[in-house]
């Protein structure tokens, strides 16, 4: 199987020369090849591109990767889904992500860590059999087929960075050949139908933009920025059937619409135009319809519309977070392969279940909070209905990251009589149904956050660094994180934005937001003033609401009267109230009386008349400030 290796500049040039020759057949030939070389003719014959076949789009199949119980599996459904509802086709305690349907419509490429490391695999859609394509400890993912179905372009983590490379599907003796070698993050490649271009996402411009690589050029002349949006982050480009249009997702940070955009190759200088909502999209084979995944705060949906924006499929909730999407005509066997059937019939086990702790002293049958062990927090307690979920999540995070991330928390339960920062008077921490990760991990490089704007609200995706960095734990971060601390760098523009994009960190990371969501813990939106109020970002807080409102959740712990007029008490300290600094009491002076004022007489006398010594009053001893008693 192909293995990764490092190359010198001379070898890179040689490899690129070979790559150009090998991939020449991926383009649809428009004229006879004049070269008489028999080897080249053989390659052209083997990799000749099949003629474009256009389908009506009716009955096309949508392949998705969806997370369930913290693992991503492959699913298939028809569009509309009445013919074939959402059906699981892989299962196991591993991840299968980034499906890509081959142009000949017989195979599905995807990435998986089923063997311990992230590699590329190809599934035969008739038999369900799976073949491994790459075999290395490096992260390999996001495959995209060449037009002749002989090659895969994909993202790979090498030299502490994501790059774009090419691998042969059938000839395992061929080395993996690089397309990009840049310090920025280059990922999510898609091969154009002409065989001579590859679109991909790169942060080489500062944030995530769509770039185009021309395989007929070398050096920096090969690359072109197609989106060039300094205040937006692009993702997941995909070509239509003839390469005349490119679809991608964009998340706007300031003005403009977030959603799916279409770029026309015939007018490359013209800005891409918005077509509809979505964070991930795919064409049907006539490029007349789009299937899209849309994002909610803690829920994703699948929908479909035409290129004019007419809704074809109402947003339908997905059972988990989408990790891949492709749409095309594919001929599945009837009945489905045995491996598909087994996966469809499997039922993911429950990750946790509540266990009630009896408590006799709670009045009116209200719920109570219970201690969580071995956790450092001001009040290490949680609601009795959610503590098992927290403990299960904590154990899972230890397995996924290699260390106990949740052993030290900024906050868990906050008593009603304790005040939080302004604007957080109705925070979920008061309900005993929330916890806040220690934000100091961000200062030490063990945690980063990615900004996600959904509608008018800002949410955060939190990543935690794995202790083992050999590729067996976690995944590389693809897009630029948001540096909230940059607001303190005395730059007015950065302050008004609430931070700025940071460089994509190296290494392998675990998506804490997605893993928490598998255990029903939801992220919370930032307060509207988060750009100028750091505490308002709330980027470390997760809550298990069970569909309750904050007020109803509070009523599970407190009587109604306690919520109307809660008595706020300051946190206890050695000096509960500020004591004024004692100052020396001025000595009192007596008002002089003319008749009794002693004077020095220059005339000496044998017996000087003794003068009256003024009576000095005692200075009152200052009393100690009485201590403040906390009711």
Topology:
Layout: H1 9-23, H2 38-46, E1 61-68, E2 71-78, E3 87-88, E4 96-101, E5 107-112, E6 119-124, E7 130-132, E8 140-145, E9 151-158, E10 161-168, E11 177-178, E12 186-191, E13 197-202, E14 209-214, E15 223-225, E16 232-239, E17 245-252, E18 259-264, E19 273-276, E20 280-283, E21 289-295, E22 300-306, E23 311-317, E24 322-328, H3 338-345, E25 369-371, E26 381-383, H4 387-401, E27 409-411, E28 434-437, H5 440-443, E29 447-454, E30 457-465, E31 482-483, H6 492-497, E32 500-501, E33 509-511, H7 512-518, E34 522-523, E35 541-543, H8 550-555, H9 560-564
Antiparallel strand pairs: 1-2, 1-24, 2-3, 4-5, 5-6, 6-7, 8-9, 9-10, 10-11, 12-13, 13-14, 14-15, 16-17, 17-18, 18-19, 20-21, 21-22, 22-23, 25-26, 27-28, 28-35, 29-30, 30-33, 31-32, 34-35
